[in-house]
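Homework help board

Subject: predicted structure for assignment chain

Our instructor gave us this sequence and asked us to write out the predicted structure in token form, then describe one feature. I got the tokens but I'm not sure how to describe them. Can anyone check?
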Amino acid sequence: MTAKSKSEAKKLAKAYSYNKEYADVPVYVIYCSWTEKYYVDTNGLIRLWEKLICYYVNGVYTSEK
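My token output:
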């Protein structure tokens, strides 16, 4: 899923993390500097031009430093 803003991406990630299909699976919010969009995904692998913002597990927010 893609989002235009960080807050929209966080809302999507939190909603997905509450879904029973994603129980105990981290849902990551990733920012892409090329497309200037935020991505919500369960795959935490990021490329050089991307930055991991945060992730949610069962609705619990964890920020990346």
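Reply (TA_rk): Your tokens look well-formed. For the description, you could write something like this. The mean pLDDT is 94. That's the kind of observation they're looking for.
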